[in-house]
Design a protein that fits this description.
This protein is mainly α. It has a single domain, classed as Hypothetical protein af1432. The chain has 10 helices and 2 strands; from the N terminus they run αααααββααααα. A two-stranded antiparallel ribbon has the order 1-2. Helix 4 runs parallel beside helix 7, helix 6 runs antiparallel to helix 7 and helix 6 packs across helix 10.
């Protein structure tokens, strides 16, 4: 990530909002310390809900679903606010985008390929159903949840596109961290066994 920023700065590439977005992603490791009062006020009724807290025990990418949704929502909040969008709906919809409340298991053999596709198609609908059972949502928030797996769903607002982009970017980042951590653990085992 730092290399990308240095490359952009050194080559004087003008990416406008892209640089803003990348700068916001560098805050990810310090999100819990950087919550501002406004974000917390928006998020609090959702993140303190008993059903929502269950997501802390469900693994997702490199962390829990709870942490992933919180990270994604905070970054979406910052971007939406900076762009003058409806940051309240973006935050609420993003917090609930993976509110599916089950542990996703990858299949074996042929199901290794089909189970993720089925999950990609179904989990936004399950998340929306769960969200509607526990919270009142406007149409924009509902579309954010349903469409975050684009191209499976179609975002109908700029806020939904922001959440979709942030979710994809953060998923790649989290999978990258997971791969780095796994490689580092293997390296530590090799070094310790020598």
């Amino acid at each position: 990530m730092i290399f990308l920023f240095q490359f952009i700065e050194n080559h004087d590439i003008m990416y406008g909002n892209f640089v803003l977005i990348l700068n916001l992603f560098t805050e990810r490791n310090h999100i819990m310390q950087k919550f501002n009062a406004e974000f917390y006020a928006i998020a609090k009724p959702i993140i303190n809900h008993d059903a929502y807290i269950l997501m802390k025990d469900i693994r997702h990418h490199n962390e829990s679903v709870y942490e992933h949704c919180l990270d994604t929502a905070y970054i979406s909040y910052k971007i939406s606010k900076k762009l003058g969008l409806d940051y309240v709906s973006a935050t609420r919809g993003c917090l609930l985008h993976d509110f599916y409340l089950y542990k996703f298991e990858k299949g074996k053999g042929f199901r290794f390929f089909t189970k993720p596709l089925i999950h990609a198609k179904n989990h936004p609908l399950v998340a929306l159903k769960n969200a509607l059972e526990h919270f009142e949502l406007n149409h924009k928030e509902q579309n954010i949840i349903k469409s975050h797996m684009f191209p499976v769903g179609m975002p109908k607002s700029r806020e939904a596109w922001v959440v979709t982009f942030v979710d994809k970017f953060l998923a790649v980042y989290e999978y990258g961290l997971r791969a780095i951590n796994a490689t580092f653990e293997k390296y530590k085992l090799l070094v310790n066994n020598v």
